[in-house]
Amino acid sequence: MRGIRPRQKITQADWNGYMAQRARKARNPAIQRFFDTPLPDPDTPIAEVPMVALDMETTGLDERRHAIVSIGLVPFTLQRIKLAERRYWVLNPSRPLAEASIAYHHITHSEIAQAPDLEEILDDVLAQLAGRLVVVHFRNIERPFLDAAVKARRGEGVLFPMIDTMSLEARLHRQTLWARFRRWLGRPPVSIRLHASRERYGLPGYQGHHALVDALATAELLQAQIANHYRPETPLKDIWC
Amino acid sequence: MDVELLEIRQHMGRFPPFDGLSDDLLDAIAEQVEVSYFKTGSDILEFNETVNDLCYIRSGAVEVYRRNGELYNRLGEGDIFGHFSLLRNHKVSLPAKAIEDTLLYFIPDAVFQRLCEEDDHFADFVELERPRLETIAEQQKKSNDMMVTRIRKLVTRYPVMVEASTSVQRAAQQMSEAQASALLVLKEGSENPRFSFKDSEGQTWQMCGILTDSDFRNRVVAEGRSPQTPVGEVISSRLITVQSDASVYEAMLTMLRNNVHHLPVVYRQRPVGVVHLSDIIRYETHSGLYLVSNIFNQSSVQELARLAPDVRAAFVRMVQEDANSQMVGSALSTIGRSFTRRLLEMAEVELGPPPVPYCFMVNGSMARNEQSIVTDQDHALILSDDFDPKQHDDYFYALAKIVSDGLDACGYAYCKGDVMATNPQWRQPLRVWKAYFQDWMANPTPERLLHSSIFFDLDSCYGEDVYVESLQDLIAHTAPKSPLFLAAMARNALNRTPPLGFFRTFVMEKDGEHNNTINLKRRGTAPMVDLVRIHAMACGSKAQNSFQRLNDISKTQLLANGMSDKLSYAFEFMCMSRLRHQMIDLQESRQPDNNIEPENVADSERHTLKDAFQVLSNAQKFLKFRYPMPAQRQGR
């Protein structure tokens, strides 16, 4: 992942309008249901938004050549992370799995051989995400991979708003005057990767690169970010993208 | 099982009370946990808010307060809070605040209730202080050396054995010669395989019975049998034995269960000895017996001083064998008194017989039979009322000097407060002593009593015991009627207070300050002794030992029901903690002291110690309320 920077924020999208339009045009029932479930209004205070932390492990970084190996998600709110409602799937990527990524994700060939294709669990995944605001760390993996994988199977993709804890961290450490000053001095940029970001908030170190662990870690990180840099009343539109 | 749950499980499994849970219960918790982050300074539980979860600190630090804002506890990684409310009305009584960025795991009430129901250890832990202290005190009692020592250790000699055909007269003669109170009756053959064995010559025998002193009375003489009766005819057919590797405790139970006082000890099936109930009683109460007899065999201070390492060794052994604090305290006090007595005997040999009768009085921990290995000497001389200072004082000064110097040589340091018979103030005839006590009780001020409270633990060590007894009578008679005196004593007893508990590797003070060590005597056992003494005097008890005093107090209405038990569990635990740390000091060749370092305190020990401190702290508050300072007297 080194060298990859979050892409520039394009525009402040009219997410609710986009979702409504997709709901009208959707042909696949599961996708229709997903887009038809209303999202919280952009002005909703973050403390009242139901959220779900999502993490995927993939065989590589390019959604056109690589595939999803596992998905972990943990529903939560600003008050509580509900581990009892967690979900975790190992998937058959139907694309060869590099040895390096096996070591990385702790998922083995035999686990994958018995695993289902995303197609089989997609309805379940979408039902879990529907109506909740998805929280990820580095949206440029989850967003394009999920969109591409769904498009390949159902003929239409899924795009939806997300809160990206990495870009919240980038706002604090990469886009400030101080960050530019550091860059000018030739100092290495502050790390905004999941583990390093968590450390700044005194969160414990977890064993990383497991979709469910990382989803939990992301949910905790968002709680910490809001507690330290925002307010419970901060409207959703200020932090989603 | 999901990996991340294993991580939660692993984390919880390291901390009490979760460390004792079964894997199934740990899974059940990990499955249901909810997580939340709290920034430094944010409120976690607010007063009177409804709680439905047990809170577990995964990382960070939390402070818990009383309703009035006073700090109740500071907690770190692995600690829990909120359980008091869950056990009561689900309303927060002790509010909590994050003092560092904190990640909490919430364990839902349903899971919490299930843990309480299914795991006794967990239930004991989360209930208020008493049950936990009680459980541990009980465990200590049970696991003392009787549980671990094998009965074979008490077998001192081979059993006296006779054949069944031997006459009762011949058998009685053999018992007298061997000074045995029981003998084993054998016959050749192996009809009863349970009791048959081969002797060293390869011959097969079987044990068919035991004959004791009382059997001679009941079965021979009382029944008018002839002295020629073969023993085989008078023995009972019931034979109860114990294996040589059974514990002393098992052997004792066997005796009690079967109502027998003699027990043949067998190795496999071969008899190796007979133990009597008294052997067990002696073993239990006089572990230091050999040391004491050794003290009386020494004839010079130098020789006595050489026993000091033996005292330390006996101490380490007792603590290792899980003797309780009363056993250790009374053994060490007995040893200390023996040194004192032996020194007095030697002094009398050197100086000649005393010109007037006297009593050598001991004070402080020795009088209470609560000595530890770190102790100084506190004593005084009560002389006959015929004492004439001009004529006799040189003698008694010399006597006191020999004893005091001798004790110092044996490892009992001089008293820093000069409470020693060498001090002329504390070498006085009985009538002066009576006047001292009357004056202390009639005209008390906290300042005056600060230095004399040590005399309110008093016992005779040598000489005219009646002198000390008359002083004890005087106190028991006067103190209950002297509210001013009790109030002044109570005020002094509040000078030393316990800390709040532990936080990470620090001792937590009530004002939130941290310290690296704690003096467990000054901050725990001594204030407890002071407190117990006051209640004991208020109820006219003449006991000196704190446990006995608590026992006397419990027979009165002075304290709320069950309170004296609570105090005695707390006291026992603090004493044991102190003794254990002294033992560790000795084992690591350090000078033992009364300090304990939090990093050497096991997790379970720190929780229980905290409970003990809490009991003491509450009892101190009650003391203040029970013995109020009467309105200031005018004038002085």
TrEMBL record, chain A:
GO biological process: DNA metabolic process
InterPro entries recorded: Ribonucl_H, RNaseH-like_sf, RNaseH_sf
Pfam families according to UniProt: RNase_T (PF00929)
Gene3D superfamilies named in the record: Ribonuclease H-like superfamily/Ribonuclease H
Keywords: Exonuclease, Hydrolase, Nuclease
All residue ranges annotated as the Exonuclease domain in the record: 50-231
Gene Ontology terms: cellular component: cytosol
MF annotations from Gene Ontology: 3'-5' exonuclease activity; nucleic acid binding
NCBIfam families the UniProt entry points to: PRK09146.1
Protein name: 3'-5' exonuclease
Lineage: Bacteria, Pseudomonadati, Pseudomonadota, Gammaproteobacteria, Oceanospirillales
UniProtKB/TrEMBL annotation, chain B:
Domain Cyclic nucleotide-binding: 17-115
Molecular function GO terms recorded: [protein-PII] uridylyltransferase activity
Signal peptide: none
KW RNA-binding (keyword) present: no
Residue span(s) of domain CBS: 155-228, 235-291
Keyword annotations from UniProtKB, A to Z: CBS domain
SUPFAM superfamilies according to UniProt: cAMP-binding domain-like (SSF51206), CBS-domain pair (SSF54631)
Membrane among keywords: no
Pfam families named among the record's database cross-references: CBS, cNMP_binding, DUF294, DUF294_C
CDD domains on file: CAP_ED, CBS_pair_CAP-ED_NT_Pol-beta-like_DUF294_assoc, NT_GlnE_GlnD_like
Coiled coil: none
Protein known as: Cyclic nucleotide-binding protein
The species this protein was found in: Halovibrio variabilis
